[in-house]
Amino acid sequence: MLTPGELAAKLNKLVFSILLIGHQKCAPDWYQPLRTIRHPSFWLIIKGKGSFEIDGIHYPAEPGKIFFFTPGTVVERRTDPESPLEYYLLRFHYTETYEEKEQWISRSAAESPFPLAGMYTVQNPPQLMYMMEQLVVLWKRRGHMTAMRRNILLHEFLLALVQDFRAQKIAGDATAAIEATQDYMTTNYREPLTLEGLSGMAGLSVSHYSRLFKKIIGYTPIDYLTHLRVDRAKELLVLSDYRLKSIASSVGYSDEFYFSRMFKKIVGLSPREYAKKYRVVPIRPGE
């Protein structure tokens, strides 16, 4: 798929002619057998469930999904009888026309494939649903100004869709960055890690990184690091006969007393109490 910026650049060069706008509620037995698409179109699913087969690949049709169908695509569509589909559709023609270096360039749809095809997930369906509702109303009216408004609203719809994709990409990139620092902490918990260093790795400000980490992982970064260290210390206390200072050092704490305080805060027992209760090897004298 094109990046949101590339997609916007492609769409910005297209001139549209709307052929049909509709709002459909399917009967429980609704089914469309295999057919070859003749005109570009898109369907925004707003209710119910179904299954679409596009060029031999099955896709779930459900709220939050938008399907773009391009000429030549072979499609089969059906609804779930217990939860019939409801959707908006828009069929259109287009041509690519734009100015470059003081020259107008025009390409037919056959020469310029539409930049969207197949199924996409929408993060903010209500916004797009509202625009489609407006388009349906405008489709029932006639007049040059109404036709102009329809075309403007179609461009606004496509812009909102690109912005939706952009928001998803930003969120996805941020999530990947957060998960990368999570993996780094899991491997390097013994090191003197800092919030500033971790947020720098993610390419985010400290405050933004902390908020996102808590939202995605469920802990603040420092709490997550502390739990990693305490979990490893619990293993060592149970399975080894190392002294407390060595265990503290091996999980990233230079101060064994601070380590003991953090351990008790999380576990509810001091390291010594935990070891007495769960250790499977003898405790060294004087420990």
From TrEMBL:
Occurrences of domain HTH araC/xylS-type (ranges): 179-277
A GO molecular function held by the record: DNA-binding transcription factor activity
Transcription is among the record's keywords: yes
Keywords: DNA-binding, Transcription, Transcription regulation
Pfam family, one: HTH_18
Keyword field contains GTP-binding: no
The protein, known as: AraC family transcriptional regulator
